[in-house]
Design brief:
- The complex is a heterodimer of chains A (413) and B (85).
- Chain A has helices at 4-10, 39-52, 84-104, 122-137, 147-153, 181-194, 238-245, 307-320, 369-382, 395-398, and strands spanning 32-35, 57-60, 76-77, 111-112, 115-119, 143-145, 169-173, 177-178, 198-200, 205-211, 214-220, 223-226, 229-232, 252-261, 271-274, 279-283, 289-295, 329-339, 346-349, 355-359.
- Chain A has 413 residues and is α+β, with helices and mostly antiparallel strands.
- With 85 residues, chain B is mostly beta strands.
- Chain B has one domain (3-79): Folate-binding superfamily (Folate-binding fold, 2-Layer Sandwich).
- Helix content of chain B is 11%, strand content 42%.
- Chain B is built from one helix and six strands; from the N terminus they run E-E-E-H-E-E-E.
- In chain B, a hairpin with a 3-residue loop joins strand 1 and strand 2 (10-13).
- Classes of the chains: A alpha+beta (413), B mainly beta (85).
Amino acid sequence: MPWRLLRFALNKKHPEPRMFTFHEKLKPSYDVVIIGGGGHGLSAAYYLAREHGITNVCVLEKGYIGGGNTGRNTTIIRSNYLTPEGVQFYDESVRLWQDLSEDFDLNLFYANRGHFTLAHTDSALRTMRWRAEVNKHYGVASEVVGPEVVKEAAPMIDITCAGHSPILGALYHAPGSVARHDAVAWGYGRGADQRGVEIHQQTEVLGIDVEGGKVKGVRTSKGYISTGKVLCAVAGSTPRILKMVDVKSPIYIHPLQAMVSEPVKPWLDPILVSGSLHVYISQSARGELVMGASLDPYELHGTRSTLDFVEGLTSHMLEMFPFLSNVKVMRQWAGMADMTPDFAPVMGKTPVDGFYLDSGWGTWGFKATPVCGKTMAHTIATDTAHPLITGFSLDRFRNYALTGEKGAASVGH
Amino acid sequence: MKIMTCPLNGPRPVSEFHYWGEVRPMPDPATASDDTWADYVFNRNGAPGLKKEWWCHTPSNTWFIAERDTEKDVVLKTYFYEGDQ
């Protein structure tokens, strides 16, 4: 037993400080109000304080920290996207990820595993080749590999996938990683808290006051705040917030489900994704298999889970890994994904002065947490979009200039 | 929502149906401005609420309207389209 633990046994009071300071009341005004205490919102608060010296900031969270999509994703981090905008943006994110544990002095269990996107058809293989070339051009490690490389990396795989969709090759992305997702939110939250940012959990935003096209204040369940700058980082609740400021957007909400198996001995090192079979799988540090599929087929603003999802996902999973037939599913859950027509996010300034958006993060938001915080902090502090996010502005729809990020979701839509 | 009532075939499992989005009036493409057209093509009413939607019963290719609460996932009624009302 570590001796440190004795301190807890012998001490009447809890001897360690809390992760976050508890604030009884909201102040009447802040320089910046961030709606949403997930990874993205807390990361923006952290970089606002650390890099721009703006500390009179408050983060409002309806539930608890990291309880939304930050804690509901399947923790995959990669940058092998299709468009130049996407590749550069996510590459910067992967770089930030790599130093984050030291930055926070908190173990994020960042594990570099390697990421295979499997191709079962000629056309899929052609897209892989395209993605690999775009990636290589921007210095991101991506290559097309044959089925024998996949078999070597994951020896338990049935390379023919039950005989009817044989694996022809894969896009291999060596920097592909997984990390402990809630620790990311806590790390950013603690870092922001130490620098003076106030985090208010259990505080719901009820309305946003706009006067003459400018943000004036935020009405919350714990009172009124006057502020000139509001960042909306609320994932699946974006349309509700946009309604408060009367801004139209193409964002629509579909649930995305995931599940984990009971823990088993380590047997799967890389992360595997199959677009054709609608499956992605990795093994967590605890031994659980973390699995996901594609979006639910219709709009829904809730986080219910369905048996249809488990049946569909497991049947495809067994085609890839027949030996899993005896492994039990331990739990399943869902998150609300805010989807966009071009599978790229919507970030930056909006028609309302002082209202900033970090949204449209559909099924690809977790891996972007650090770079979103960094670029949004810059955008808020300087009131100009960061160069990395100019391709993601809300204006692009009105100008018919979509980004077309088909490599966005790990599973085809 | 596990069962949906098709106006032609009665109650069927929801996996037999395909969702085609909210019913929205189309502006006249010949006279609409670029902004109006972009608004129609891209923007959606993404907030939760009671919505009128296009659904299709795939095995019988039956198209119809469903009124659905997108927050509670409850279908209130389904009926055939009878022109814009």
